[in-house]
Amino acid sequence: MTHYNTALRSYTAKRVEEIESADIIVGIPCxxxxxxxxxxxxMVSHGLAxxxxxxxxxxxxxxxGSTDDTREVSKEFxxxxxxxxxxxxxxxxxxxxxxxxxxxxxxxxxxxxACAVVDSxxxxxxxxxxxxxxxxxxxxxxxxxxxxxxxxxxxxTITNNIVYNLxxxxxxxxxxxxxxxxxxxxxxxxxxxxxxxxWETDVARYGIDIWMTTSAITRNFKICQSNLGxxxxxxxxxxxxxxxxxxxxxxxxxxxxxxxEEYWKQIKASEPLEVFGYEGAVEPEPVxxxxxxxxxxxxxxxxxxxxxxxDIFSAECFAEIEKTxxxxxxxxxxxxxxxxxxxxxxxxxxxxxKVNRNKLLDLMTPLYYARVASFVRQSWDMTSLEAEGLVEExxxxxxDDKEYLLKVWEDKYRKAALIR
Length: 420
Known about the structure:
Spore Coat Polysaccharide Biosynthesis Protein SpsA, Chain A, eight-stranded mixed sheet, globular, 2 domains, 420 residues, 16 helices, 54% helix, alpha/beta
């Protein structure tokens, strides 16, 4: 495996050298986004012109070798004459994380005061996003800004059912969108990220967002959130598209739990973070979900994996899974309490197993579909704002049941050590 000591190709490094220094860099990681990239570049350029005209700004397109016209479209779009644009193909394993690594390195070399990154498939980005993300860093001394959005209740199911809950329960900070994709941070944080040796792991792919957020918390950087308003992007039906992303995010979360064990074991409750940005509420456009398809995924998974599930999970958890299997789609449900214990037992199993960890994440996928299907049924007649109440309720329960995690974390590890 080639070890890449930089994500910047020589022509990109040269271009950075020519620019010499800047106050702000906005990175846009992309891959085959020719339909949306122009709008994103345009909004970023307008935002920088409207709010930071007196600052030297760079827009960096970090492309994964798109086979469509993403780079051409980015090249052709005219930004303001006083702004700089870098269009690059990064070096390293293909994935969003490597794209951001190249942005971190450019931020470091240009000695910027602040760096923002935004996704390339955004349709709801406005020029104000630039200000909402950057101003806490430039004007208020924050080092890491995480986004808050109004998202449709069925968009962000990995966040709502796993990532938000675990981040909050483990690390004690109520970061609502730990894998939101649109962040801002100071140069010292960008340098910290660039210098870490994680670029051959899932962090180089979809694991990047949760790694950035968790690192910001555990390194005690000064963190806040910024409300960006409504998020509309190329949302994916959770029943069809989330396989690799789900596994990479979960792998990264569980690996970080091991790395930061001493930190999160000390945390008892959680605290809210200061929120800046947009004030107001909009109902986002709907995200279609295939409820029967998700239930089908779960039932197929049960046929395939139930023997292994019985082996991995506690008798109580397995009984709940079995009960859910016998339900039809009209009354399909897996309780929040059972779901929390499934997630905690899975994290503990990952910690105890040193081999076949990928297999373990495959075992988790059908259970995740069961939980999402359950959430969809429960929130069917709710607005996205009302469904947010369910998400909060679940997150509080994850926190309340943290003792259970501490117990199974030790128990499973001890048992595995005896077998070894």
